Amino acid sequence: MADAPSISVITPVYKGIKFLRGTFASMAAQTFTDWEWILVDDESKDGSGALIDELAKEDSRLRVVHRKNGGTSVARNTAMASARGKYLAFLDEDDLYHPRYLETLFNLAEKHGADIAGCRKLMFDEDSSPGFPDDGPPPDAEVRIADRAGICEWLSGLKANIPCEVWLNLYRRDVFGDMPFPPGVRVEQDFRWHYSALPRCRKYARIDWTGYAWRATAAGGWLNPKPESMLSHIETFRILASSLPRQMGLDDRQLKGFIDGFNVSAHVNLFVPLKRGVQLTREESRALRNGVRSLYPLGIDLRCKLHFRKRLLWNLFMLTGCEAFVRI
């Protein structure tokens, strides 16, 4: 058996034929070459499976797994089960790495003995190119290092300080490789997995540099939120807010900041989509309102981010289920 690579890159593949060649090119352009790339075909019907079989013939570092459709979490879990690298990296089928992405995060993790090493992202339109702003991290790029106490401080600012997308980070496989992504969860698998991993993290390194290009497609995500994603947000808030503060040992001040971050997220992910016109069935409306109420005991109440008039209208929606109140 060949020597284990330094990094195992994991990509679920499902209906990605339009973008896969570009993603392949971004991997082939990596200045760091000691990697394996595990692509899991999740029973895609658009020819993606055949395409990645072809691409694997061009580069022996690619490994392709074909499996019955199970969703993104199951595909990632399948890849992690066979990964051999010291670190795990994630790359979505329609996104791109900066040519120095793997090199930068590997060196960052190795230099500082970090269990997780991360960077920043840029967003680009579906049919454009990302236009990374530089050739690599400048010598004066800020690097922030946090031990467990520092991670608690970062959590007090929540999403403002810790990139929750798994594809923005490198993870030590011997620390996190046995943590499965939640099967059956179609939205925010990475958010839940990343934050659930933090109690295991002894040291986290972040560099203020843009190394990942995230393609904003019109098909879904926050650009086109759906009731399913809103309900998933509620469940994510509930799971993390009820467990992470205790696991990390947040003090009262840190807990307040942590919960405030969730209140901001609740506003963005629940109130704003309704304001913009997301349509709910009667059952979805009832589930959403019940879910919102279930967050109150945890301190998550987006009303604290609303002005008086909006708060009143939100209360009317919560009482009646009439979405028109939110859209006024």
Percent of residues in β-strands: 15-25%
Order of helices and strands: EHEHEHEEHEEHEHHEHHHHH
The chain-level mean pLDDT equals: 93
Number of strands: 9
The percent of residues in helical segments reads 40-55%
CATH topology of the largest domain: Spore Coat Polysaccharide Biosynthesis Protein SpsA, Chain A
Q: What is the distance, rounded to the nearest whole angstrom, between the alpha carbons of the first and last residues?
A: 64 Å
Low-pLDDT segments: none
What characterizes the major β-sheet?
Answer: 9 strands, mixed
Radius of gyration: 21 Å
Q: What shape does the CA trace take? A: globular
Domain count: the total is 2
Helix segment tally:
12
Query: Which class of the largest domain in CATH terms?
Result: Alpha Beta
Category from helices, strands and their pairing: alpha/beta
CATH architecture of the largest domain: Alpha-Beta Complex
CATH superfamily of the largest domain: Spore Coat Polysaccharide Biosynthesis Protein SpsA, Chain A
